[in-house]
Amino acid sequence: MQCISRFVQLVIVLLLTGCGFHLQGAAHLPVAFKVTYLDAADRYTSFHQALSQQLTSAGAQIASQQAGANAVIEIVNDETSQRVLSISASNIPTEYEISYKIKYRVRLGEQEIVPLQSLVLMRSYSFTESAALAKEREQDIIRSALAKELAALVMRRLAVLSP
User: Fold this and answer.
1) Does residue 98 sit in helix, strand or coil?
2) Model pTM?
3) Domain of 137: which CATH number?
4) Is 57 contained in some domain?
5) Exposed e or buried b for every residue in 33-51, given b needs 16+ CB within 10 A?
6) Scanning 1, 31, 94, 137, which has the fewest C-beta atoms within 10 Å of its C-beta?
7) CB-neighbour burial class of residue 163 (10 A; exposed 0-12, middle 13-18, buried 19+)
8) Apex 114 CA angle, 112 and 120, nearest 5
9) What is the end-to-end Cα distance of the chain in Å, rounded?
10) The domain containing residue 129 runs over which residues?
11) What pLDDT is attached to residue 26?
12) Is residue 49 a contact partner of residue 85, using CB atoms and an 8 Å limit?
């Protein structure tokens, strides 16, 4: 009985690996990204910090100067915005949408391997005046989550490059 159970487990593992399934984790970057420089106007945005952390966890070293880097990821635009989605009968906002937009390009040496790309992610959330402080914290959490998702998207795009 135990032998059959082990056999079934082995078959499941083989089927999952055969179809290309793998657990989500750190992306495996091409060797060209071993030393990467992040060129951004603001190094303290949520996206910059998330991308830097994900590059580091993927094995890349973040260069402090562009001269010492093999690859340069230029973050041309990094901005968040918020808009009202719905209002109550008494003209008070009840739902907002937060969007996080980035534009970036990637260079290896003098060659641009990823032309200027735009990525935008959006999330909506409800708002109540009685929980204004909690909703402000929720905004921060949503912005941070959007930044991490955008960084993960950029990492997946870098992982499939073959320079």
Assistant:
1) strand
2) 0.79
3) 3.30.160.150
4) yes
5) beebbbebeeeebbbbebb
6) 1
7) middle
8) 140
9) 51
10) 27-157
11) 55
12) no
- The answer to whether 61 touches 94, Cβ cutoff 8 Å, is no
* Structural domain contains residue 18: no
| 52-85 pLDDT tens trace | 999 999 999 999 999 889 999 999 999 999 999 8
Nearest to 114 by CA among 144, 65, 154, 79: 154
Tokens of 4: 């059959």
Partnered with residue 122 across adjacent β-strands are: 99
Residue 2 lies in a domain: no
Give the total number of structural domains in the chain. 1
Residues 6+ apart with CB under 8 A from 97: 82, 83, 84, 85, 122, 123, 124
Distances (CA, A) of 51 to 61, 89, 113, 117: 12, 42, 18, 15
Q: Residue 27: exposed, middle, or buried by beta-carbon count in 10 A (0-12, 13-18, 19+)? A: buried
**Residue 135 CA: distances (Å) to CA of 97, 140, 141:** 12, 9, 10
Nearest by Cα to 135 from 90, 95, 100, 99:
95
